[in-house]
Amino acid sequence: MTGSMTRVWPLICCIGFLSVLLGAAGDHLLQGQLTDVTSERWDVALRYHQLYSIILLSLYLFGRSLPKPTRLYNASIIIFLCGMCFFSGSLYLSILLNMENLTRLTPLGGVLLMAGWLFLTISLPRSRTES
C-alpha cells in the first residue's frame, strides 16, 4: 500500500467512530426532536455511513495484502470515502443545520458510491496480475 494510502487509515477509523457517535446521537440526543421525515433521513444516512465504514476498513486491509495495489484500487477507496461523505454528510447536515437544500448533494454521493464500485471492479483483475 502506498504511503498516501496509509494516511487514510486514521481517517477510516475516525469515520467508524463517527458512525457510532452519530448513531447514539440520533437515538438519544435527537430523540423527540426529529420529524418522521428527518428521522428516516437520519436512519438512511447512518445506515450508509456504517456500511461504508466497514467497506472502507475491509478495502484498506485487503489492499495491504496485495503485492502492489493499482492506482484504480486506491482511487476506489478515495471515491468511496468521498461518496459516503457527500451522501451521508449531506443528509446529516441538512437535519442538524435545518437546511433542506443540502440534500441536493445526496445524489452526488450516490453517484460517487456507484463509481467507487466500478473503479473497484476494474482494478482487482489488474492488481492480481501485476504481482
Topology:
Elements (H helix, E strand, L loop, with lengths): L2 H4 L1 H22 L6 H30 L5 H26 L9 H24 L2
Helix pairs in contact: 2-3, 3-4, 4-5
Walkthrough of the structure:
With 131 residues, the protein is an all-alpha fold. The protein has one domain. It has five helices and no strands. α2 runs antiparallel to α3, α3 (36-65) runs antiparallel to α4 and α4 (71-96) runs antiparallel to α5 (106-129). The longest helix has 30 residues, at 36-65. 32% of the residues are buried. The mean pLDDT is 91.
Largest sheet: none
Question: pLDDT below 50 for ≥5 consecutive residues: which ranges?
Answer: none
What is the 3D form?
Answer: elongated
Oligomer: single chain
Concise overview:
The protein has 131 residues and is an all-alpha fold.
Key words describing this protein structure:
131 residues, mainly alpha, elongated
